[in-house]
Amino acid sequence: MRVGLIPQSFLERISLSSNVGPTPILLAVWGLGACRTMMAGVRLGIFDALSRDKGGDRSAEELARQLGYDPAGTETLLDALVGFGHLSRRDGRYQNGKVAEKWFTANSKSSLHNMVLFLYHVWDFMNSLEEAVRGGKSHVRDLHDPERPPEFWEHYLRGLAEFARLQGWEMVRRVPLPKNAKSLLDVGGGHGMFSVAFCRYHEGLAADVLDFPPAAAVGRSVVAEERMDHRVRFIEGDLRHTDFGQDRDAILLFILVHHFSPEEVQRILARAFAALRPGGTIAIFEPEHRGGSDDVTQSGGMMELMFFLTSRARAYREETLRGWLEKAKFDRIRTTRLLTAPMTVLLTARRPEHA
Ligand SMILES: C[S@@+](CC[C@H](N)C(=O)[O-])C[C@H]1O[C@@H](n2cnc3c(N)ncnc32)[C@H](O)[C@@H]1O
């Protein structure tokens, strides 16, 4: 998948292909608008107010009165959201499009409401880009700095929980667990929703989620809301120094290893191997960096940039992760890609029965 300009007429097609029109600026300005109007629509409660369960369509004036906003400002934002395809307008009344109703309203089962709110923090990271390039990583604050405010952890982990809710059903079918698995460790599991999905799928399984205290605080509420707190528990600590336990049937390292240097990742894998029982499963789930030496994809370049701005390490290629799993003596290494998680890669492997 990639982002780009889509011409809507013959003239626009020629303008785009001949490099005559100022297309790079159009892409940048519209990209900026697409992002910020969507964020404002969520933060200002526009999509929620127009949701089907709240009565649906409204005029700009009705909506402005209901939410206590400026009528001209409300109408301008609504029209921009129509332009970006999130709302439709008929006879001066606005309603959510299918995409907005599904992804942006807080009550939808597939809501990405918190992930959109997390984009405000991503916006701040992006503001430090020039400084980070000039001065290097010492000018960048670590994403997981425990001193970040509770609101940050709430949007970050509830946002990731929204992804995990979408991906859980597929994930549990793609990660093979030993028969009668009883104990899973979810390293850096944050919100706990992947552990919830595995416990629901495997009767008799209980999970420990290991994460920093502010992450565990959010995770405990998420798991309690799912009524799974009797099977999913939290261990607070830094995963680099906290015991992984023993005789684990499965260990998950999801959206995690890019935060660590190659040496640290290899130490984590060796400790995971020792904590698994023979026949136990390890699963690594990561944003994929597919670019080759001469080619960087949009998603690969963007991920590298985000990780540079927010963590100590880089996105790793699948071959690199595979190599480290082999070196740590895991066998049955498999690569899978998920329908529900474009641009990611899932590697599963096993601690051999006689190791
Ligand atoms: C991107 S989130 C992934 C959450 C979850 N595994 C998922 O796939 O959605 C990374 C998580 O790792 C945790 N983490 C990062 N470094 C850690 C460390 N040194 N010790 C404990 N947890 C850590 C963060 O607090 C965060 O919850």
Task: Put the structure in a nutshell.
The protein is α/β, with parallel strands linked by helices and 355 residues long. The chain is built from 14 helices and ten strands.
Question: What report would you give on this structure?
Answer:
Keywords: Methyltransferase, S-adenosyl-L-methionine, Transferase. Residues 34-103 form the O-methyltransferase dimerisation domain. Residues 148-312 form the O-methyltransferase C-terminal domain. Pfam families: Dimerisation, Methyltransf_2. With 355 residues, this protein is an alpha/beta fold. It has 2 domains: 10-104, Arc Repressor Mutant, subunit A (Orthogonal Bundle), CATH 1.10.10; 129-350, Rossmann fold. It is built from 14 helices and 10 strands. The strands form 2 sheets. Strands 6-5-4-7-8-10-9 form a 7-stranded mixed β-sheet, sandwiched between helices. It is globular and about 70 Å long. The mean pLDDT is 94. The structure holds S-adenosylmethionine.
